[in-house]
Amino acid sequence: MQERLKELQAEALEKVSAAIDLKELNDIRVAYLGKKGPITEVLKGMGKLSAEERPKMGALANEVRDQITQGITAKQVQLEEAQIQAKLAAETIDVTLPGRPVHTGNHHSLTRVVEEIEDLFIGMGYTVAEGPEVEKDYYNFEALNLPKGHPARDMQDSFYITEDILLRTHTSPVQARTMEKHEGKGPVKIICPGKVFRRDNDDATHSHQFMQIEGLVIDENIRMTDLKGTLEVFAKKMFGEEREIRLRPSFFPFTEPSVEMDISCMICSGKGCNVCKTTGWIEILGAGMVHPNVLEMAGFDSKKYTGFAFGMGAERIAMLKYGVDDIRHFYTNDSRFLKQFSIHE
Ligand code: DAH
User: Fold this and answer.
1) E strands along the chain, which residues?
2) Are residues 212 and 267 in the same domain?
3) Which of 146, 166, 310, 317 maximizes ligand 1 atoms within 8 Å of its Cβ, making it the mutation to test the pocket?
4) CA dihedral 321, 322, 324, 328 (to 10 degrees)
5) What is the CA(278)–ligand 1 centre distance, in A?
6) Which of 56-65, 247-256, 265-274, 336-345 bottoms out in mean pLDDT, i.e. has the lowest?
7) pLDDT tens digits for range 86-144
């Protein structure tokens, strides 16, 4: 019996040491130490032993059990450790691998130009004003000194909804609306970006929907020189300190006198190239001193108050600033075009 127990111990420990995983180890535990295992089986024969031998054999059996248990426990620790190591090895992160690029969106190029212009004017004390895109004929034309039948209405071919309601053709109606709200009291100092609509056929330089930015300043003693100084700051900030401006006489019904502003060409610095059509100058915007009729219609005393206004196309500014050659790029949403204006580049 003693030998049999020793044999079982040796046999069990050998199997334990050869076990390759925890499942196998557990099977060995059940096989050798379980109630139906060989040790229990051997011990059943204890009854046949003498009273002297019995405790010895009992002690030996316990000893064998302990040895096998210890063997199993030690192997278990070893296998568990190996399992953790294997897992760690499998999950090792190679921190030197380049990361996957995260695709981020970016502001539309037009939005960026509009925000840049807004910031510039906010810095000069202007506030941002807004008005409806579906506008009354009154604000779009009449209040701007363009009564019904005025020939200058033809300059802005319009989308009419009813006889008196249309899609605004410019942002100038916001001038009239803002002045009306001020109830004849200055100062007024606003910048107004927004969508405008015209019955134009789309091509490289025309779009039936585009964006304008309007400016309006009204106070006592506002002069043409204030307009010129403001536009000069704008031109230099947007297109570079070395830019020069020139004002050419023009006509708008809502301003008198009216001007168009050109800036010296930033491509050829005035020498003449195809962007400035060899003139050295690029037309940027329309402006002028607010017409007394416009002031009076909106409730301002034109003897006390004077003002200037200007209006520009945002796409034109963006096209010149970023060298875009077709206005349709802003609206066809080709992501290859749009991505070029990412600030994350
Ligand atoms: N509203 C004009 C246009 O769409 C642009 C403009 C010209 C606006 C002169 C003004 C201005 O405020 O004073 O062509």
Assistant:
1) 127-128, 134-136, 165-167, 188-197, 209-219, 245-252, 255-264, 281-290, 306-313
2) yes
3) 310
4) -90
5) 26
6) 336-345
7) 889 888 888 899 988 888 888 899 999 999 999 999 999 999 999 999 999 999 999 99
Question: Cα of 214 to ligand 1 centre, how many Å?
Answer: 7
Which of 155, 167, 252, 260 maximizes ligand 1 atoms within 8 Å of its Cβ, making it the mutation to test the pocket? 252
Residue 343 maps to a domain: no
Q: Are 190 and 216 in contact (CB under 8 A)?
A: yes
Instruction: Determine what percent of the chain falls in helix, strand and coil, rounding each to the nearest 5.
Output: 45, 20, 35
- What pLDDT score does 343 carry? 61
Residues 226 and 117 in one domain: yes
Instruction: Indicate if the pLDDT at residue 254 is higher than 80.
Output: yes
Alpha carbon 326 to its chain's center: 24
Query: Which atom from ligand 1 is nearest to the alpha carbon of 308?
Result: 13
Domain match, 165 and 293 both? yes
Q: Which domain holds residue 205?
A: 109-338
Task: Tell me the pLDDT tens digit for each residue of 7-46.
Answer: 888 888 888 888 888 888 888 888 888 888 888 877 787 7
Question: Which residues neighbour 284 within 8 Å (Cβ) at sequence distance 6 or greater?
Answer: 235, 261, 262, 263, 312, 316, 317, 320
- What is the domain count for the chain? 2
